[in-house]
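User: Could you walk me through two proteins back to back? I'd like the raw sequence and the structure tokens for each, with a short line separating them so I can tell where one ends and the next begins.

Assistant: Of course. Protein one, sequence then structure:
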Amino acid sequence: MTSISGNLHPFESLTPEFILNAVEAEGLWCDGRIFPLNSYENRVYQVGIEESVPLIAKFYRPERWSYDQIKEEHDYTFELESHELPVVTPIRRDNGESVRYYEGFYFSLYPRKGGHAPELDQLDNLFILGRLMGRIHAVSATAAFQYRPTIDVRSYGEECVEYVCQNFIPNSLKSAYGSLTRDLLAILKERLGEEYAASCIRTHGDCHIGNMLWRDELVHFVDFDDSRMAPAIQDMWMLLSGERHHQVQQLSEIVDGYNEFYEFPLQQLKWIEPLRTLRMLHYCAWLARRWEDPAFPRNFPWFNTERYWGEHILELREQLALLDEAPLALPL
């Protein structure tokens, strides 16, 4: 498997033999069964272990995170676990180390956890998630990340637009994309200023239902790979969906649960649409930056077509209109 440029991609090295050797270098004896799990940014496998339950092996994308950044993510989950919060943490060696290294790859091992995505159309589930998020943020706010970055306009907006505009936008749409994103970025810079920066805490960063495992009314949070400094609302706005009145109902349940353990930051509701805009810009650039990884053209065949870029510009125009609307608010 090669990239679209014809060069071998680093993940090409992750052959079954390589994966087994990496795991067995940790003193484990594999039974030869390897099952790839859905993951695009990294590579994740379920690996069978002799006379034991399978483990999950996660191989990090080379040159994305440093050792210190990965360790800081792990330490954050260990801290949450120490407060009896249901997060899936990596397995540590006897010396406490959780970040492994094998022939060019950082990797980690996790216990296998079962479950399914929560059904957010049930308001009781949102109340439960709100309580859990309040507990998580009560711990998260006690310290700051030292090595992991912040969700901000520069990294999630300006740098993404620059990369896409220089490398991917068709010439026929470049002018429309450029003028539209200039307007969006100007609004985002105005709204996500000093107050925003001062409000940032440690967050999961990518808190959607695909990163939650629900079983028997219990939920575990998984995949803290995108943990960053951000306002608390970053971990909650992706739980909202549907028409505005539906989102108000959903928000009410989340707030009621959250307030049992931590004060919900109602003043941050004004950042929901700006954060959604940043995510849209960042997601598009993420696909573009990963296009040399053969997994991306295979799994996202609709990306980088004339139709895709036209629809993306239309979505950004709709988002520009949403930024002019009043933010969500709970009834008095």
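----
Protein two, same layout:
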Amino acid sequence: MKAAVIYNASEAPKYEEFSDPVSADENEILVSMKAVAIPNFEKGLASGKHYASITNTAPRIPVTMGVGEMEDGTRVFGIGKGGVLAEKALFNKAQMVRVPDGLDSVTAAAIPNAVLGSALALLFRANLKAGEVVLINGATGFTGKLAVQLAKHYGAKKVIATGRNQEQLEELLMLGADELISLKSTSEEIITKIKTLHESEPIGVVLDYTWSKPAELILTALQGKGKFTPVTRFVTVGSTAGDSINLSSAILRSSGLSLMGSGVGSLPAEALHQLFSAVLPEVYALAASGKLKIDTVSSRLADVETDFYKEVPASKRLVFEI
């Protein structure tokens, strides 16, 4: 079969012949791959730059998940037993979700990683409750846009969205955002706007995709003044603006802030079970009925060497069609 093959983690995958995968037992299902998304997480794993990377085996096929077709024609999203950026792959039988007939394979492949970074973060780390106010920091990215839509779907009373791309930021008003904050504003303007909103209606959840300076400004805005303050769960999911922050102890001591992360290693095992049994099927149903807006950029498996690390707009997801 044809596949994307990694020989060196510092180089893009090659488009080459590779041995067909062979099922070891009844729990491994052979599928013909249809579409594979390439979020930053998968690029990090392939290059060895993500903390969960395993790069001591080569040659190997990259990417952990995608959409394939079973022998009977049923399309499923699944987690691969080995890499899935190839014409064929093995899916773990316990980690598959049927793709609805009304949902195309490219969109179906693009959604799951963003669900990990939005739905699971909201439900299993932030423990979002209906009626709460949610601030999504870095909401103009692909996962952030999905998070805005899902936060409202899960019952958020108000969604505050931040971002640098003004056009994408304004589009979020049509996707469920109630308040917009431009990260191109001055630090003082950002802090003042968040303080005002927080004093009017306490922010219960912050879902952060940028970390670094924007996160510092939000945390500063939530600092208390020596009196009882509402509880805010600050959940960081990404670090597009940088991997470090300066955080004053006084911010945590003076407020009801609970600071945590969401990602591989921090999500509970139950979250992964719920992803396949309930969360992803529900999100797929929303997408199939046109209730979610998803933007993708497609490429072909044959172009993997030039396109695997290709830069695409942050609001879109690169997907290889097989």
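The chain has ten helices and 14 strands.

Let me know if you want the two compared in more detail.
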